[in-house]
């Protein structure tokens, strides 16, 4: 059952973002399945999915940590419901990773077969005529795949940098809240001391009045 974000709860907003990201990854894997494994489109989609899988894993870890900070402000039942949502998304992430890796393994096997053929003889004239790819095509495709992987790593680096900034900001907010709580505790202590002093003065005046 989906959790309805009525009051604009930031945690539920982050949960919705994770769910949307997982659905986008699922759609991209379906789109990749329709592409030829040696096509450029297949490589581009693979690079994008690889980055988004890592992003989803990172965001789920942060979502779990944030839930730990909210435990005292939530009921036990609500905490359990939210924990189940995280676990469900984590299970889906594992399934998506398996889909991604299984397709990648098939592609690697195809490249290994191509490389073995190239090692035997790089002469394009010796490649069977029924093959739809030449040695030059396969080498060009391998080059494009490496370029796509580099692009994916660059995108991942940017995601990690953003996550680091977010973690730093959250840490700053926690420190600020701690300072506010410390100030509040000092104010309460001062007020309490003043109240005790006034109470003693009133008691003294009352005692003196009773002796007149």
From TrEMBL:
SUPFAM superfamilies: SNARE fusion complex. Gene3D superfamilies: 1.20.5.110. Transmembrane segments: none annotated. The keyword Coiled coil applies. Keywords: Coiled coil. Residues 143-205 form the T-SNARE coiled-coil homology domain. InterPro entries: Syntaxin-8_SNARE, T_SNARE_dom. Residues 53-106 form a coiled coil. This is Putative snare protein tlg1/syntaxin 6. It comes from Anopheles braziliensis. The lineage of its organism: Eukaryota, Metazoa, Ecdysozoa, Arthropoda, Hexapoda.
